Amino acid sequence: MSDYPDSVSELCTELRQQLAEQDDLDSRSAVAVAALSRQLRVAEDEVALFLLDERKTVLHFLWPKRFRQIGFIPYSSLDSLAARTAREGRVFLNNTFASVHHASFFEKIRLKDGIADRPKPIQKIISVPMVVAGEVRGVIQISRKGEEGDELADFDDQAANALVELASVIGEAL
């Protein structure tokens, strides 16, 4: 894993301990996002965490926090990569995501108040299920945002494999 700052197995051990020390879901989410951001070299606003409800009808946003009050994603949505990831329980890696039809409503929402510029669209994405005891518990998405033509590093299988390992640890804690 030389392309990434930490050994994934070491990070999983540290992350498991850090998550166990947190008292609430908000704190656990923040710890998870910080670790994912550092490991995969993305900004924290390029990380999304979703939890699947017990009846498997909707995915609720955990992160970004602003999205919690705005909405959810129906499990049956055909336009949502997060919903597809949860339904199929498999990894999706797409370095040409901006050119693919997808639900882009949430990409248009400003994550911070007082910022006039429109948010940058997602160009590249990895979407991974959080699987606990053989069941999908939620989804983690890591993206690279930018304008068309921006030089953004591609995601690779190494990044996807690291995210699968981290998703297992995070899924157990959420």
TrEMBL record:
Q: Name one Pfam family in it.
A: GAF_2
| InterPro entries listed in its UniProt record | GAF (IPR003018), GAF-like_dom_sf (IPR029016)
Q: Which domain of life does this protein belong to?
A: Bacteria
Boundaries of each GAF domain copy?
31-174
What name does this protein carry? GAF domain-containing protein
Q: Which organism is it from?
A: Geothermobacter hydrogeniphilus
Query: Which taxonomic lineage is given here?
Result: Bacteria, Pseudomonadati, Thermodesulfobacteriota, Desulfuromonadia, Desulfuromonadales
